[in-house]
Design goal:
mainly alpha; about 0% strand; about 260 residues
């Protein structure tokens, strides 16, 4: 494993502990563009890394009692069912380049949602919308199954905007959902006979776990509005990078064919 990938692994852990998201959205591009891993394997590796590191974060967050279990009961079941079906029947049939382009577009949408509104305002005026959250869970499950992400970059905005949670409660609740979703995705892969490079995956996961401890400690000392802004700008930057790389690649391929 290169030093760059090792640094990214630690950064992923810090991101998960600090923001409740940012794990797979960093891991997938890193595996594909830096590690040279095929997209369909990279998304599985990312799910494993995020499953383990988010579990550690949930354990560290448990004492804070910030997890909103009622909201999770609205969101979780539909997300899991959708993820299983997508991972099992759809994932292998979508072109790698299309997957990465969709990945970039979804990141821009999530960043826009987080940067547009203030969580403090929403928490005081928004009434919980359980049916909307359940329906949105179907979409997140499909995205998670197709792109190999835990879904925190889409769940956290939804928990803030539609469940009326403040950022820190949204982060803690999102981590539980990320852990369950990612573990489900890995279980589906293993049941299908997918073989992971365990030496590589476990090393990367260990470094991410170290980072998540640091991120969780920092999250208790940083104001929610700064967490939200950091989250939004992080997702925006990664989305723009992914789109730029894939569009250049697409243009090059088109030019070669013509």
């Amino acid at each position: 494993m290169t030093a760059i990938l090792a640094a990214i692994a630690v950064a992923i852990g810090i991101s998960l502990g600090l923001l409740g998201a940012g794990g797979a959205i960093v891991a997938v591009p890193a595996f594909v563009y830096i590690g040279g891993v095929a997209v369909n394997m990279a998304d599985g590796y990312a799910l494993f890394v995020v499953a383990v590191s988010s579990f550690i974060a949930v354990v560290l967050q448990a004492r804070s009692r910030l997890v909103d279990w009622k909201t999770i009961s609205w969101f979780g079941p539909s997300t899991i069912v959708s993820l299983i079906l997508t991972r099992r029947y759809l994932n292998d049939h979508v072109n790698d380049q299309i997957q990465m382009l969709l990945f970039g577009l979804l990141l821009l949408a999530a960043a826009s949602a987080m940067l547009r509104r203030k969580p403090e305002d929403q928490a005081t005026v928004v009434s919980p919308k359980p049916l909307l959250l359940s329906a949105y869970g179907l979409l997140i499950g499909m995205i998670g199954g197709l792109l190999g992400v835990g879904g925190g970059f889409l769940m956290t905005p939804a928990l803030v905007l539609w469940a009326g949670l403040d950022m820190k409660r949204a982060v803690a609740s999102s981590l539980v959902l990320i852990c369950v979703n990612s573990s489900t995705g890995v279980a589906v892969d293993l049941a299908r006979g997918v073989h992971y490079d365990w030496s590589f995956v476990l090393t990367f996961t260990g470094l991410a776990t170290a980072g998540i401890i640091v991120g969780t400690i920092l999250s208790r000392r940083i104001d929610s509005k700064y967490l939200r802004a950091s989250f939004g700008w992080l997702v925006l930057a990664i989305g723009l990078t992914v789109l730029a790389i894939e569009l250049v690649s697409l243009y090059s391929s088109y030019g070669t064919q013509s």
